[in-house]
Design a protein that fits this description.
It holds the Pfam family BCA_ABC_TP_C. Keywords: ATP-binding, Cell membrane, Membrane, Nucleotide-binding, Transport. One of its GO terms (cellular component) is plasma membrane. This protein is of the alpha/beta class. The chain is built from 10 helices and 10 strands. Strands 6-7-8-3-9-10 form a 6-stranded mixed beta sheet, sandwiched between helices. A 4-stranded antiparallel beta sheet has the order 2-1-4-5, with helices on one face. A hairpin with a 2-residue loop joins strand 9 and strand 10.
Length: 265
């Protein structure tokens, strides 16, 4: 990886515990994310990785602990508040609108940023519609930039449901990028992909991190990918943190090796 400047802590997770009835999903998890880094969360199935992302983006409300974003500490936040603050999320199971085109799917990521409602503006002030149309054009232009960036121009009008799975994952990334997030949470962005698709997605993630300056937090099972693209890695096992550090430090951590990586790695 090329040298880059990692900034101050932008996201701080402190002593997060999450329970579902009597089941402990997360126990006293703490870690931070620094500006402009790629921060990976790894661990075996059932380790609590997706639950951790769900706590960060407001889907779950942990019973204990707090999460700070840019110095502001929150006990409870809903998903919309999190998105408005600048944290976007992709999901392990795609939630795209299968009957809609690629362009329209990515455009849905602009919803939070569209301040003008063309119809309402026309009703209130018939002369203001020109400004609203200009705003709409600016949003469309931004979406087209993302389509070019992700190299999906050839599919821009195609219904998403007709495209291969690897391309759908790329479109899901595009929709999250349309929100112009400061922090992007990626939940297994390469699940179900072949080697070539994984290489493409790894390149796009690094380009997003580099060219957009977006801080990335990702869950990923492919250890080759994690070790190649991450700046730091936090390791969960049965809802507890068992490792945290650079890829090299994590790779040589005995507890991590026995719990997850195995001696073959």
């Amino acid at each position: 990886m090329s040298q880059k400047k990692i900034g101050d802590v932008v996201l701080n997770v402190q002593d997060i515990s999450l329970r579902f009835g009597g089941v402990k999903a997360l126990t006293n998890i703490s870690f931070d994310v620094r500006e402009h880094e790629v921060r990976a969360i790894i661990g075996p199935n059932g380790a609590g990785k997706s639950s951790m992302l769900n706590c960060i983006n407001g889907v779950y409300q942990p019973q204990e602990g707090s999460i700070s974003f840019r110095g502001q500490t929150f006990k409870h936040m809903n998903s919309r508040q999190v998105a408005e603050m600048g944290i976007a999320r992709t999901f392990q199971n795609l939630a795209l609108f299968k009957g809609m085109s690629v362009v329209d799917n990515i455009m849905t990521g602009r919803n939070l940023r569209i301040k003008s409602n063309l119809l309402m503006q026309a009703i209130r002030n018939p002369f203001s519609i020109g400004g609203a149309q200009k705003e709409e054009e600016a949003h469309r232009e931004f979406v087209e930039h993302i389509i070019d960036f992700l190299e999906i121009q050839a599919h821009r009008k195609a219904p998403v449901g007709q495209l291969p799975y690897g391309l759908q994952k790329r479109i899901d990334l595009g929709r999250a990028l349309a929100m112009e997030p400061q922090v992007l949470l990626l939940d297994e962005p390469m699940a179900g992909m072949n080697l070539e698709e994984k290489q493409d997605m790894s390149r796009f993630i690094l380009d997003v991190n580099d060219e957009f300056g977006t801080t990335i937090v990702l869950i990923e099972h492919d250890m080759g990918v994690v070790m190649d693209i991450s700046d730091r890695v936090v390791v969960l096992d049965y809802g507890k943190k068992i490792g945290d550090g650079t890829p090299d430090a994590v790779r040589s951590n005995e507890e991590v090796i026995s719990a997850y990586l195995g001696t073959s790695h």
